[in-house]
Amino acid sequence: MNRIFIVDGARTPFLKARTEPGLFSAADLAVACARPVLARQPFPASALDEVIVGCVIPAADEANIARLIALRLGCGKRVPAHTVQRNCASGLQALATAAERIALGRAQLVLAGGTEAMSRAPIQWNSAMVGWLGKMLRARQPLDRLRALARFRLSHLKPVYSLLLGLTDPLVKLSMGQTAEIVAHRFGLSREAQDVYALQSHRRLAAAFDAGHMNAEVETLYDTSEHFYSEDTGLRRDTDLEQLAQLKPVFDRKYGLVTSGNSSQVTDGAAMLLLASEAAVQRHGLSVLGEWVDHEWAGVDPSQMGLGSVHAVAQLLARRQMQMRDLQQLELNEAFAAQVLACQAAWDSAQYAREELGLDKPPGAMDPEWLNPEGGAIANGHPVGASGARIVLHLLHALKRKGGGQGIATLCIGGGQGGAMLVRTAGAKS
User: Fold this and answer.
1) At 429, is the pLDDT very low, low, confident or very high (cuts 50, 70, 90)?
2) Which of 15, 122, 378, 427 has its CA 20 to 30 A from that of 236?
3) Residue 33 a catalytic site member
């Protein structure tokens, strides 16, 4: 296969959803971070072979959002684009698809990533209201309209929140937060351990911003009211264990351990990366951020969705004949503190390795110092379509700061899946 290089990339600050739709559409966000990436290149946007974007809830007026983004970026009508959806790993899927296209020689330059405006998830009419409206539209005579009108009930106005539906598994009837409760109880994770991890995420992200480590990947975002955003707005610099301990469980109010403080945030954001073949790198004289090595997908019980990363990472390491200790960093998307801690416990469990992974010995937990060392989604948010691309982008910059190495970016995926991508930067062993 052809080698695949990641040339450049950027993301927006992640903006925590408040009580009203955010200022930026999903396409706005993707364009805002992709435009400077393309501006830094020695070739025009029209030289791209394809644009691939992950997005879970595109707006009705942003159908095939990848094509809309490509055209707004000036790629021209001849550059094709398509949108992918793999729930929380949609951005990772976009990168994986781009890598596969380049590996097969079908493309040389691909812009790929993910975007999401979760604050703009639509609120819909319920089925009873839709049925009533249909009857009203079909009624032609005045008497028929009066009869249809008489069938109206106030319950018809009860809204349907598409975001809540999307975050609930339709088969096991559990929300993502409830699946976090299940894995927390399975591995005996205390509320205090989850809150301690959540606090660490905020402190690590704050330290990364203060040290200037995020400058290379985060592009300042400007709105139309002369405001700008250069830092993730979900970051809580002032939080502490006392404040976190006061929060009530959200998903199991009587016995639960998962709170809004030890969970990821509903967020708007985008991350876009430029991938290139070795021939394209040489032809255009491109400097590279890192290299794609491999990726893997796995399926698990949807009721224990958070363990998907355990399987995807274990399968990827086994195929590459590697151990966890061979990695210089692991970026594990922080959907919930419980899910991160459960993955660590599962990777370190001989019983789980034998019974669930089919391995003779466990791959081992990741060194906590190199697991999300600059924080994660608990602090900066989880715009579901974008998170997979964000963690790959951040991992590459982090490895570069270390002088080179190899690492894995991984996510659990709603519906009971896991995804993992292995990348390396200069200085890593081939």
Assistant:
1) low
2) 122
3) no
Whether residue 412 lies in the annotated active site:
yes
Q: How far is CA 21 from CA 17, 118, 266, 292, 386, in A?
A: 8, 8, 12, 36, 18
* 55 among known catalytic residues: no
Catalytic residue (choose from 33, 55, 343, 412) = 412
Q: What are the residue ranges of helices labelled H in 122-262?
A: 127-138, 142-150, 162-166, 176-186, 191-210, 241-245
The confidence score (pLDDT) of residue 428 equals 58
Among candidate residues 295, 311, 382, 394, the one labeled active-site is 382
**Following DSSP, what letter does each residue of 257-323 receive, concatenated?**
--BSTTB---EEEEEEEEEEEHHHHHHHT---SEEEEEEEEEE--GGGGGGHHHHHHHHHHHHTT--
Token readout for 354 is 């034998």
Percentage of the residues of the chain whose pLDDT score is greater than 90: 91
Q: Which of 33, 75, 88, 343 is catalytic?
A: 88
Let me know how long the chain is.
Answer: 430
Q: Distance of CA 342 to CAs 71, 264, 332, Å?
A: 42, 16, 12
Contact call for residues 366 and 324 (beta carbons, < 8 A): yes
- The Cα diameter of the chain in Å comes to 80
pTM above 0.85, yes or no: yes
Domain limits, the chain: 124-161, 174-214+293-420
Rounded mean pLDDT, 52-67: 96
